[in-house]
Amino acid sequence: MDAFPQSELERIERAGGADLVVGILDPEHDGQAGCAVAMVREALADLSKVARAVVLCNNGNQSPDGAATQTDSVGRPLAVFAYGLPAPGPGETPQSGISRAYRSVFTVSGKLGVRACGVIASKFRAVTPQWIYRLVQPVVDLGFDLVAPRYTRHRMEGLLNRSVLSPLHRALYGERLQNPAGPDFGLSGDLLQRAVGQDFGTPRGTESDPVARIAPAAAYGGLRVCESHLGARTQAPTDWTNLSSLLANVLGPVFLEMERQAAFWQRIRGSSAVPGIGVPETVSEDTGTVDVHRMIESFQLGTQNLGDVWGLILPPATLLELRKMSRLPPGGFRMRDDLWVRIVYDFALGHRLRTISRDHLLRSITPLYLGWIASYALEMETAGPVEIDARIERMAMAYEAGKPYLVSRWRWPDRFNP
C-alpha cells in the first residue's frame, strides 16, 4: 500500500469494506474510470450478494471522489467506488508494472475484506460486462475459489501456454486448466487471504510475478477451481525480437514456484478436469501465419552456438537428438512431444540448481522453443479446431507420462542421467 498516493489511501480507508474488488490492469485503458464503473455496474446487476464494489484502474490517474450508487435488478442499492492504482515507478518495465498492479489489487482486496475479486489484465477494449460477470459470478454465487479463464483461440495463439504453462500445471498439480496463468481471474476471499499470507506482495525482481502463484495456491490449498468461457481475447502480437525476455519473465516465476511447492507436486499422480462455466464460442477463420523457415534456422543456429550451455542443462541423449533434428529437411522438421517435455523438465531442474545464471538459462531455451513452434506449425498447417484440441491433449498427456523423469531427476540430479 506504500505505493498509493496518500489521498488515494485516505479514500480507500473511507470506503471501509466491500464485497467485491474488480481490477482493470490494462495500462492502455483510456484513463476514464466512468467506463469501467458502468461496465462493472452492469455486470453486477444480477448478483444480489454484492452491495458494495470497488473498481481499481491501472491508468496512473486518481478517480473522482464519491461512489456511483444505483439499484440492482430487484431494487437493492449497489454502490460502486472507483480508485486509481499507483502510477508506474521510474524505469519500471511493462512486466514488472503488471506484477505490481496485481499485488496492489490483492493488497487492497485483503484490506477491504472482500468476498471476491475479479482481475482483468487482457486488453480492455475486448472486455464486456458479461466477461466480468463470468469471472466473478462463480465465486459469489457458486462458492468457487478460483475462476480461471478459457479463451477461444486460433491455431497459432497462446503457444507458450499450450506448450508449457497449461500442460506443466496439469502434470504438477493434477488440474486441467487451459490458462493457469490467466491473465484474467476470479478469486475468493479465502484464496486472497492465502495470497497475502504467502507474501504475494514482497517484490523479488522479475521472479516475484504473483500470477504464477495463484493456480498452484488453489491446488495445494484444496480449494474449489473452475474455468469460465470468456470468448476471444485481444492481445498484442508476439514481439519475436524480444522473445528471450518474454520467456525469462514468464518461465522464471513458474520454475520458482515449482521449487517452492516440490514437496506437494511430487505426490500428485494423474490429473482431472475442472468444472466449466458457460458455453465456448465458435472459432472464426484463422488467418495467422509464422515464418517457419526462420524459426528452423534459429533452432539450427542454437544447436551450433549454444551446445556448451545446453550441455550444462540437458543430458547427452537429449543433445544427440537435438543435433539430429538440426539436420532434418524443413518439410520433415518435427520435435517429438517426449523430447520437448524432457527439455522443459531439465530446464526447470537447471533453474532450481542454478547450473548457470538463471537469466542466461531461461534465455537459452529460446531456439528450442522456436524449434517446437516450427514443428507444431508444420504439423498443424491444415488442421481444424478438433485436430488442434487433440494435438494439445497429446502434448498434455506427454507431460504427465514424463513426470516420473522429472521427479527422479529432481530428487537425484547427480545420479539420474539417462
Features:
13% strand; Spore Coat Polysaccharide Biosynthesis Protein SpsA, Chain A; 48% helix; 418 residues; alpha/beta; 2 domains
Q: Could you explain how this protein is built, in words?
A:
The chain is α/β, with parallel strands linked by helices and 418 residues long. The protein folds into 2 domains: 272 residues, Spore Coat Polysaccharide Biosynthesis Protein SpsA, Chain A, CATH 3.90.550; 120 residues, no CATH class. Helix content is 48%, strand content 13%. The protein is built from 17 helices and 11 strands. A 9-stranded mixed sheet has the order 3-4-2-1-5-8-6-9-11, sandwiched between helices. Helix 2 links the parallel strand 1 and strand 2. Helix 2 crosses helix 4, helix 10 crosses helix 12 and helix 13 runs parallel beside helix 17. The chain is globular and about 70 Å long.
